[in-house]
C-alpha cells in the first residue's frame, strides 16, 4: 500500500499568469453594434433566399411537404390560443349589448 499524495492548496490569484489580451477583431461587440450585425445577417439571409427562389430546379414537392408540416404543427396551438381571446370578446360584447 502506498502513502497518500499530499494535496497542494490552489495558488493565489496574484501568482497566476496574466490572461492573454484579445486581438481587436476578437473583442466583444458593443451593445449598439450587436443588433445591427444581427439585422444585417437577417437581411443577407433574405437576399440569399430571394436569389435562390428563382433558380432551377424549384423543389415544389419539398416546398409542399415543408409547408404542410409547419401548418399541421401550428394549427392546434394557434386554435387553442385564439379560443380564450374569442371568449373574452364575446363576453365583452354580450355585456355591452345588455347595457344598451
Can you lay out the helices and strands and say which pair or pack?
Blueprint: H1 33-53, H2 60-99
In short:
The protein is mainly α and 100 residues long.
Proportion in β-strands: under 5%
- The end-to-end span amounts to 95 Å
Biggest pleated sheet: none
The arrangement of helices and strands along the chain is HH
Poorly predicted runs are none
Q: What this model shows, in words?
A:
This protein is an all-alpha fold. The chain has a domain at 32-99. 61% of the residues lie in helices and 0% in strands. It has 2 helices and no strands. The chain has helices at residues 33-53, 60-99. The longest helix is centred in the C-terminal third of the chain and has 40 residues, at 60-99.
List keywords for this structure.
extended
Amino acid at each position: 500500500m502506498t502513502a497518500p499524495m499530499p494535496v497542494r492548496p490552489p495558488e493565489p490569484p496574484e501568482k497566476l499568469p496574466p490572461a492573454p489580451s484579445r486581438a481587436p477583431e476578437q473583442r466583444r461587440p458593443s451593445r449598439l453594434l450587436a443588433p445591427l450585425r444581427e439585422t444585417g445577417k437577417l437581411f443577407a439571409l433574405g437576399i440569399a433566399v430571394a436569389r435562390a427562389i428563382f433558380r432551377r430546379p424549384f423543389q415544389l414537392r419539398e416546398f409542399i411537404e415543408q409547408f404542410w408540416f409547419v401548418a399541421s404543427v401550428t394549427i392546434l396551438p394557434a386554435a387553442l390560443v385564439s379560443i380564450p381571446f374569442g371568449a373574452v370578446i364575446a363576453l365583452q360584447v354580450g355585456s355591452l349589448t345588455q347595457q344598451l
